[in-house]
Amino acid sequence: MRRIYLDNAASTPVDPQVLEILTRTSLECYGNASSMHSDGTRAKELLEYARSGLASVVNCHPEELYFTSGGTEANNWALKGFCLANRSKGNHIIISSIEHDCILNSCRWLQKQGFIITIVPVDGFGITQPDILERAISDKTILVSVMHVNNELGTIQPIAEIGRIAHEKKVAFHTDACQSFGKIPLDAGELAADMISINAHKIYGPKGVGALFIRKGTDIEPLLHGGGQEQGIRSTTENIPGITAFVKAAEVCHSVQFEEQVRIDHLSGKLRDNLFRRFENVYFNGSPEHNIPGIVNFSFSGQEGQAIRLLLMLDEEGISVSAGSACSSNHEGSGGSHVLRAIGRDPVESRGAVRVSIGRYNTESDIEQFCDSLTRIMQKLNPIYSF
Ligand SMILES: Cc1ncc(COP(=O)(O)O)c(C=O)c1O
Q1: Residues 8-19: pLDDT tens digits?
Q2: I need a labelling partner for 75 at 20 to 30 A (CA). Which of 2, 109, 138, 274 fits?
Q3: Is the pTM of this model over 0.90?
Q4: Ligand 1, residues 68, 199, 201, 246: which to mutate, most atoms within 8 A of Cβ?
């Protein structure tokens, strides 16, 4: 049975062109980039070539990009590293209520170090309100961090405006762009952001690789101390195969971005129309206007308690989707998704959403089969409903 993978916001399959680079670099370029012999020099050249390639995609200087082990490390570093380096200027940080767990938990850690965190609410569609955020800025504020696209809802945050506000108030701005990078335009040259986190496994690259853009002149403490790689502030032997594959994945996404997103948007529309037609109690979570193509988050009114069962039954039929987000391993305990709670859903509703995320390798037939399976399963789960 061919499985239908509709969980691309959790992670994506590796693109064959990317796999080719990953394999070739692993086999042919295994030297340590810090070694003085030719194998080391070659590895170093490849690393810097990759950095320049990524800088062209992101529109920044190559030396403003620091490779990391993924989005989690980039986000931890941006928040902890920046706050520890700048604590003499203030101790107040502002984030939104729908940030990824790695931002929320970094803030909890910073709170224990004496920092004060303000979490600004989002509206019912899952959008951060810049005017509320502006009012939360005080003379103690040193950092604002708001994600570009939310991983559960797919909502696009007004980061251009938020960055502008932060800079007007002389506060640094970080954005977690792990769900937007490669899918919608992200331009470090245009955006008023001092730090941007990105990763590879959401864009058909390998897991365990990412990068943090740090604008020149931004003070940041290292988290990893060691041999002084990455301009002395992020030590460990560079993962050249992973990095070259990441950059290839970013370049492919960049070159096909427009057409790919049009196609994915069409599939998302088809899914939404089908759900509307087939299920009278379906409702959508997120924003009809400011949503990334590809993430469709929905619930069935009065049947939210059955979302996990639904997910497992879909899995038995060979279909992978998520209930909320798969990016957190504890699945948020009994309180449900903090993102759904942030948009005003009650605890039962917050446990009851299905997230379908469509990617490069999905087809119209995947969407049709998903809708047919879902209809069958919903009839089994609740025969009294007419679908
Ligand atoms: C918005 C967002 N930020 C950060 C991460 C974490 O990235 P990584 O898995 O590369 O550590 C994820 C999901 O994985 C995400 O969706």
Answers
A1: 999 999 999 999
A2: 138
A3: yes
A4: 199
